[in-house]
Structures
1.
Amino acid sequence: GGLYVSVGSSCNVCLEEDARRLVALLGRLIGWGAGWRVLDICCGPGRHAQALDAAGLAVTGLDLSAALLRKARQVTAAPLVRADVRALPIRERSMDAGLNLFTSFGYFDTDEEHAATLAGMVGTVRPGGWFVLDFLNAEVVASRIPEGAGGFEGAEGGARLRRYRTAGGRHVVKEIVLADGRRFQERVRLFTVADLAHML
């Protein structure tokens, strides 16, 4: 999954509401019903698993981070699995839907690894089922985030933040420096819709 750094608690309620709205939207688009088996891939702190569970779906959350799964356990009773998304311990074609939400894709070193991971995620879904990938709009990101590292801007809790695209624009980088000096960086591959369609 992606970088999860809390720089303030005021956003948690907003994120939970966003998760509820997204699950409701997906329900209207997909038409899933009570009891559908849904795999929440890279479930993080469990916001979407909580909303899916509340909607009557048989959700299983999966994430590599033990710390995030502990947070998820506080908000959902859904089964939670600790695993690397590159080697899913889920039987092929066993899910009615697979969800990879909140930009939890694009973090690997090579495009081959991304393609194999995407194939593994899709492979868990039964024929006629649904796979949902919530991902960055590369064209919009390219128009709003400059190429090359610039200066840091202030963020909540005394943190500093900067976002930029790498040379050639293949990745977007987010760097956070917390008030206590700890630094975090995440780098996401910017796939276009055509790139994703080709891999799928």
Note: The helical segments are 12-30, 47-54, 66-73, 111-122, 138-144, 193-199.
2.
Amino acid sequence: MQGKDAIFSLYAGLPRHAPGSSSSTQRAADIARPHLPARPMALDLGCGVGRSAETLSKTLSATVVGLDLYRPFLTEAGGRGLRVVEADMAAPPFAPSTF
């Protein structure tokens, strides 16, 4: 197993696919809140199963799009009601300033 397949295999089955926690994401959102519009839009690059995106969506009442390369992670994130896009974070398919 090589490259990204090894990484996906390593993270498969874990509840979170990134450093941090829901509480650290919430704390960062609380710090950012005064500088955001009333209904912000956010893009979670490399979202994995969408734990951070889900926390941001709830904490900020934001529209959050999760972007990842790995379809099984996106399927799990989408199953919790998150908007997801299968794409490479090096070339997100969005116009500048969308988020």
Note: Helices lie at 3-11, 22-32, 51-60, 71-79.
3.
Amino acid sequence: MIPLRDENPSRTLPYITISLVALNVLVYLYQSVLSPGLETRFVLQFGVIPYEITHFQYIGPITRYSPVPRFLTPLTAMFVHGGLLHLAGNMLYLWIFGNNVEDALGHGRFLFFYLVSGLAASAVHILVYPASTIPIIGASGAIAGVLGAYFLMYPHARVTTLVFVFIIIRLVKIPAGLLLGAWLVLQMISAVSNQTGVAWFAHIGGFLAGMVLLVIMLGKRSPLGRYRG
């Protein structure tokens, strides 16, 4: 299933969401002009390497002489992607669901929410894989936080989704609660089945962190489940 758009207009211009999309695209464009060797170096220096965080040791000279301290890599890693499809998928989800969460929280608070969700996602991955020397990159954890917040606030909002059933492709309007709930279950199944190549636990951690953060930040003003369209 690929979401294309939601039927949940925002009241304000989501300029933080737009800025985050633009920044991620600009960083990827910079990556795309690097040679393969320099791009690998870029990922190692700006990605999160759990072993270096938990052991306070560098895995090699490339990271030892990184332009950013290792404790900042959970932040920088949110803006680095491993390929065009990785970037496109993340930005699609951010574009569809980010505007409404930004609308509910306010612009500055949304930026704080987004970054903290991403940091929480990295923390969960590090806790699960403390000795891993594989860098994790991407905005997925932070965006998972956005999905968690949207799941709580707008479960009834309709999302136009591209659904693949064998060779049949259909456009279907699915309630956000069902779509995002299925997304979370898929992350859990993938994590438990130990599928490699994707930081599944970071996605789960980001989603749950987003739900908790939303309730904390909005408190009694929390518009949980307010959409009835």
Note: Residues 163 and 169 are 6 Å apart (CA to CA).
